Amino acid sequence: MVNEKEHLAENFMFRLIKEELEHNPLDRKMCTRFPPEPNGYLHIGSAYAIHTNYSVAQYFNGTFHLRFDDTNPLKEDSEYVNAIIEDIKWLGYDPGNHIYFGSDYSSEIYNAAVKLIKQGKAYVCDLTPNEVAEYRGTLTEPGLDSPYRNRSVGENLELFEKMKNGTFPAASKVVRAKIDMASPNLNMRDPVIYRIIYAEHYRTGSDWCIYPMYDFAHPIQDAIEGITYSLCSIEFKDHRPLYEWVLKELGYHEPPRQREFGRLNLTGVMTSKRFLRPMVEGGHVDGWDDPRLPTIQGLRRRGFTPESIRSFIETIGNIRTESTVDISLLDHSLRQDLKEKTVSVMAVLNPLKVVITNYPQDKVELLAIENNSENESLGKREAPFSNTIYIERDDFMEQPLKGFHRLSPNAEVRLKGAYFIKCEEVIKDLETGEITELHCTYDPLTKSGTGFTGRKVKGTIHWVSADHAVKVDVNLYDKLLLDPDNSKEDNRNWTERINPDSLVTIKDVLIEAFINQASSEQKFQFFRHGYFCADRKYSTEDRLVFNRIVSLKDSWNRK
After folding, report:
1. For residues 195 and 174, is the Cβ–Cβ distance under 8 A?
2. What is the pLDDT of residues 189-206, one digit of tens each?
3. Residue partners of 423: CB distance under 8 A and separation at least 6
4. Which of 31, 198, 228, 545 falls between 20 and 30 A from 131, CA-CA?
5. Residue 559: active-site member
6. Annotated active-site residue in 273, 380, 416, 488
């Protein structure tokens, strides 16, 4: 996956680390990590962070760790752990045996807090959460010392022990680092490092009722695992002084180095758990794997491939600041990945019956049709042709507009892989006037592949044989929210702005019987309609369901 080191060296993160190691080398191998909290599913932004850490480890011939930041029992669950492991392996960033859990280090983290208390660098504070916030100060005004800041080491140790033993109510006391209440960095104004939570932990059960804050646990976990570079997004830059303070005060030799990369935003995509969780838990979408969501499970079910997602991330490169990328680049990466891999089949979404009056009624002809016009190695398949077929209703216009080159009265068009046909008669419903059937004739001399050059037609349309087509269901997707970019700055109820057309399901789509060979998650190009994927959740042996991944139209190339 990441094997072009010259290309990767152009990345600012690789240059930065390379220069640092030349001037200040480490006595251990490169080791990076991705530390998700198991309280939700990975999304496309997560994939960017994973790729950054994984590729650094690969470039410097090191190891990559997946470590679950599971030190908050309130919303964490093994469901999310299993999904994250599945997703990260599917993406191609397999950590192998290097899967770890922050909760396994609970004793070490507790002992680290005890050490800080003994050094006079931490204390037990009785202020309420609101009072802690009030005492913190502002960006222009220093904070105020807690009235409990100068408790003795002995009293703090005794209180912390009682906190661990469950003596005090939840949220009644916290442990805070003693740093500097006048620091210009608010994160250094005696941050909370431990709090009381009475909740069952999905791994440790009720063994603990005190849990460390992320900013305290994270550097300790990194140090325990021998992480060399802790790579995180730019919003954690102001947290770096605290990260370094914890490691320095605890006396770790050659501590991990935190470095930051830019945060990736995508146009029209909401990745915040504040948005995703209510959508899922409120039943507004079909679970965390709904194809309209930017979760890895959702993208996979829709039909995106690991290769297309990695290509998308590699095209963006490593960014220094918060940046917004057009989501159409992801669609473009998918098209580039699939265009030479997939078989193109003929599917009719809105059928119009066509009777070829001069074709023998009892004849069935097997026509050889190429599977992929850009990749001959995919070979050909046989499609049955008969005197009654279906075409797309949009491929016929009774009174054609200028520039319309498909089927119309007394006009010829080529049927893909078959013959020229000419519309001779239009049959309509007497009451509604709706066109119900076309009567056409075909020219047997114009069979595809025979080298016929007698005349040319401007249009080619697809079709399926009426007696041989199978029925499938097709899901067409659009953006989930009507104004997703504005929603990022607006906390109104998102459910009020769900796009009613974000999912359109078409029943009884007629498609070549060749599709019956489709396996779960197999991709196809539906001729002129786009790329589709066999739905892994609802497809059955009796009824296939296909999700449109992207249309054939590429807006990224136009840009």
Report:
1. yes
2. 999 999 999 999 999 999
3. 396, 407, 408, 409, 410, 411, 438, 439, 440
4. 198
5. no
6. 273
